[in-house]
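Please check these two lines:
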Amino acid sequence: MEFPESRADERIAYVKRLVLQMFIGSKELEKSDRRSWRPVAQIVSWQFGQGRAPYAVRNVGTIGFVSARVVDAELAKGGLGLPWTAFTGGRASSAWSQSFVNVPHIRWASNSSALRSDDEEKQAGKPKSEENELVHSKYWGVVPKTHLKEDGSPWPWNCFRPWETYTPDLTIDLKKHHVPENWEDKLAFWSVKALRLPTDLFFRKRYGCRAMMLETVAGVPGMVGGMMLHLRSLRRFEHSGGWIKALLEEAENERMHLMTFMEVAKPNWYERALVVMTQGVFFNAYFLFYLLAPRVAHRFVGYLEEEAIYSYTKFLEELDKGKIENVPAPAIAIDYWRLPKNATLRDVVLVVRADEAHHRDVNHYASDIRKEGKQLHEEPAPVGYH
């Protein structure tokens, strides 16, 4: 069977009707098979429309039946290779054609969903600079909202939204220190001092890499504490007093510190390996620590944040002496902390140090609550207290 000699759009419409009639309208196919073949029909139609279907495929009169298992197997391999056969007078030919339909730039959202939306087809004719623009799948009805910055430009970050940004309080007392009162406080205090020794030996005055390593550790306690309180709330059918959100907020804030310093200090392969090993050991150790003695665990984090304040103060001294270049602040830091556009690395270190001071207060406060024999949910959590 030859295609009618007519305009291209009529020929495409003819192919679409043929394929849809063969594979979707056929009564011989079960419902599950018709679902599996619907993407095939759409692909073939699109291939004809783009002029990309192989010659052997374009000249077949009828497309023979192939099991849905073949389609699923080819989908698992990331492409779609279909054996095609031509029918003559209702009889199948003796050989399979070796032609394949290659489908570039098509994402498999679902067997029953359209493989190429109208928006994507419109973008096919756009310049190469616009080809890689993200096209959101609408199959599940989840369409991310578009946010704008204050100047009207698009919000560039998916890891945080405009309402999650803030201006840090730089007036916080940086010299505040909790004096150890009992053996548990002393255990937490000297444990932090012991952990500082290998850090000093390894990083010395490379404060950019030191900050990066510090943040990979500092982001763990808030996540562990929030997770433990979340599970406790589920087990005991009780509210958390906002402490789950406060601790997870702390963990997210520490992670944003890391994302910022990743732009300043590019870690070497051995530093990345050290981060992986340190995180694996510290997460499990702190998890057991919090499980057995949550009050001491919070005191430990309070002292850890005091050491962080000290480290960032030394970082600032090196910047002021000119030993570390005061480069422009990363764009992510400017948007996250609402810094001026001409902010520098020194401004970033100042706001990060203020965040660490706030985390110090939160964890010492949590430890004091438990010291009084209370549970955290009995006192309101300092949500938003970065």
